[in-house]
Design goal:
Alpha-Beta Plaits; alpha+beta; 2 helices; 23% strand; 78 residues
Length: 78
């Protein structure tokens, strides 16, 4: 029952942090997966990917929160 599902895939670390913070404020646990090495600002291929995962049981709620965030900030990303 502790399985995780990918909610967001992005190359934008700031977007990922904002979404993570809002989800956590809604009591949704978030796991951030990234291959970035902090001292090196590399955004090439897989090294630039950031993925947010949420628990399966929180996925629908998290999707609704993500939609509200995108509608509020006019992200346009789907």
């Amino acid at each position: 029952m502790n399985e995780w599902t990918e909610l967001l895939f992005t190359y934008d670390e700031i977007e990922a942090e904002i979404v993570k913070d809002v989800l956590e404020a809604e009591n949704i646990q978030v796991v951030v997966k990234s291959l970035k090495v902090t001292p090196y600002p590399v955004n090439i291929g897989r090294m630039g990917e950031v993925r947010l995962l949420v628990r399966n049981e929180d996925f629908e709620k998290a999707e609704k929160v993500l939609k509200i965030i995108r509608d509020s900030y006019g992200s346009g990303a789907e």
